[in-house]
Amino acid sequence: MIQPDIIDQIPALRGLPHEAKQALAGVAREVRYPKGRPIYPLLKAPQDLVMILEGLARMNGVATGGVERIIYVFRPGEILGSRVLLESSPEASHEVKAMRAVRAAAVSRSDFLAVGRRHPDILMMVTAEFSRRLDHMTRRVLSAMSVEVPVRLSQLLLDFAAPSNPDGNGFVPLAYSLTHETMAQIVGASRPHTSTVLRDLERAGAVQRRSRRGLLIHPERLREIVASEEVPARS
User: Reduced to 3 states, what is the DSSP secondary structure of residue 224?
Assistant: First the structure.
């Protein structure tokens, strides 16, 4: 059991009535996953709905040719386990692992459905959250087939921008640091090519690769690149 106010850490559930939050908190338990530990193992149907409170998790898939790809990165406030809602959940061809140490609230499938029957708002809000994420992932897949890597990388950096005020030059840090390898897997490019694109983005004034705060990004410039699908010219 967790405290009901923890449910407010999940943006998709903040609008729930207090009674529904209490009911959901009453069947939830705190769980922790060290870095690298599977949350949903490969070829195993999920048994729990998981709400991330701290840390990062990544959904991994294997592309044609056996190359591993990061399909999605889950951040604090997100809900995992869309297949928990299915009457019969098939084995998945992907897995979800802790990318950084994860602290989360977990609810078993049977408890979640039981609480959802008493409080339909819970089912509606969780389903809406899964639909929103599916739409995001679909758009990203379509983008991977139609736009250049610099545009895809620019959008990824915007997605991870920290919610802070820009410095005097318009730059902000990332909310979570990403290695070149991680960026490459997410945007579907090789690591060397991703590093080259970052250099091109730096020349275009869209990123600063070296600072005391790590990689800095210029949101306004990145949005221009994404909106125009402009590939920065190399100097």
Answer: helix
**Among residues 70, 34, 60, which one has the least CA distance to residue 160?**
70
> Per the structure, how many domains does the chain have?
2
Q: Per-residue b/e over 110-133, b at no fewer than 16 CB within 10 Å?
A: ebbbebbeebeebeebbeebbeeb
Q: What is the CATH number of the domain that holds 126?
A: 2.60.120.10
28 CB-near residues (< 8 Å, 6+ apart): 1, 2, 6, 51, 105, 106, 107
Q: Given a cut of 60, is residue 68 above it in pLDDT?
A: yes
Whether 93 is covered by a domain: the verdict is yes
Distance, CA of 139 to CA of 26 (rounded, Å): 36
Enumerate helices (H) and strands (E) in the chain, giving the number of each. Answer: 7, 11
- 91 has a pLDDT exceeding 60: no
Domain that holds residue 131: 4-143
Tokens representing residue 64 in the block:
């044609």
Residue 174 and residue 217: Cα distance in Å, rounded? 7
DSSP E strands in the chain: the ranges are 29-33, 38-40, 48-54, 57-62, 68-74, 79-80, 95-98, 102-108, 172-173, 207-208, 216-217
Q: Say whether pTM exceeds 0.85.
A: no
